[in-house]
Amino acid sequence: MTERERPHVSPGPSRSRAPGGALGVFGGRLRLGTILGFEVGVDASWILIAVLLSWSLAAGFFPARFPDLAVPTYWAMGIAGTLGLFLSVVLHELSHSLIARRHGVEMRGITLFLFGGVAQMGSEPQTPKAEFRIAIAGPIASVIIGGLFFLLSLGSAAASAPTPVTGVLTYLGLINMVLAIFNLVPAFPLDGGRVFRAVLWHMKGDLRWATRIASQVGSGFGMVLIVLGAMSLFSGNLIAGMWWILIGMFLRGAARKSYQQLMVRRALEGEPVSRFMCADPTTVSPDISLSSPVED
Ligand SMILES: [Zn+2]
């Protein structure tokens, strides 16, 4: 194992790299290794999510659908489901990354964070077509992966495989479809929002305008989630309500950050260095003491 591949926690180097800068706010990043030239890591927040998810699968989802199994079996299913989801999200992000690389967009790596994954782009796509293809690649991958898991679960049921195996495969089929659908919501910077921005960009040829509209819609969707979360909270559904509020706040932050980043990038892009330097600086001879130019 080389030094680069050894997993270790480092204080958030992904912070400024993520396309939606808000994604890195949770700090630490655990580096896992490299797939097809892309570095894969998990945000520290994902470890908490992994525990919560395993627990909610072991205590809620699996017992409700596959009753009369032993508690340790449910836990094994919960952990297998969480690892399967982890792999599914990596494959989703990997497909964004592969298409991005084909379109000449520099990719820095993949990080799984609190609400899923993010493929870290070093630059923005150059054309609406490239943006569209990069954005849609992830949900397409999730639909294909989900379909494969559904087929496997049907096959394992037909072959009378043990219930836990069929159960985990069914869950993975379902969760990949949920991943595809949630990411296709046209709320920038989610995949669907990027598709929406690509369409607007193609229509008017104005990336700045397209980004503004797409991030306003993204921000509005975030607000809807917060309101739904608050309603859910007041109706006594504490955990679901808090999740919706968190995701809504996250989306609003990410939408705003993505727009700001584009503005900064656009403002500096193509500007000659001379714009940021003094063309005719006053120089002094290296021999004279510092006090004389200051006094002069
Ligand atoms: Zn995606």
Average pLDDT metric: 81
* Computed CA radius of gyration, to the nearest angstrom: 24 Å
Order of helices and strands: EEEHHEEHHHHHH
Roughly what percent helix? 55-70%
Globally, the shape reads globular
Q: Please give the domain count.
A: 2
Q: What structural category arises from helix and sheet content?
A: alpha+beta
For the largest sheet, list the strands in their spatial order.
1-2-3-4-5
Q: Say which molecules are bound, naming each kind only once.
A: zinc ion
**End-to-end C-alpha gap:** 62 Å
Low-confidence stretches: 1-26
Q: What summary fits the major beta sheet?
A: 5 strands, mixed
Q: Total helix count?
A: 8
Strand content: 5-15%
Number of strands: 5
Strand and helix layout:
Elements: E1 9-10, E2 29-35, E3 38-43, H1 44-65, H2 71-102, E4 107-113, E5 116-121, H3 128-158, H4 163-183, H5 191-204, H6 207-234, H7 238-268, H8 291-295
Parallel strand pairs: 3-4
Antiparallel strand pairs: 1-2, 2-3, 4-5
Helix pairs in contact: 1-2, 2-3, 2-4, 3-4, 3-5, 5-6, 6-7
Bound molecules: zinc ion (ZN).
The site of zinc ion has 5 residues, from helix 2.
Short recap of the structure:
With 296 residues, the protein is of the alpha+beta class. The protein has helices at 44-65, 71-102, 128-158, 163-183, 191-204, 207-234, 238-268, 291-295; strands at 9-10, 29-35, 38-43, 107-113, 116-121.
Task: Describe this entry's structure for a reader.
With 296 residues, the protein is an alpha+beta fold. The protein folds into two domains: 1-184, no CATH class; 186-267. The protein has eight helices and five strands; from the N terminus they run βββααββαααααα. The protein has a five-stranded mixed β-sheet with strand order 1-2-3-4-5. β2 (29-35) and β3 (38-43) form a beta hairpin. The termini are far apart. The model is unreliable at 1-26 (pLDDT under 50). Zinc ion binds next to α2.
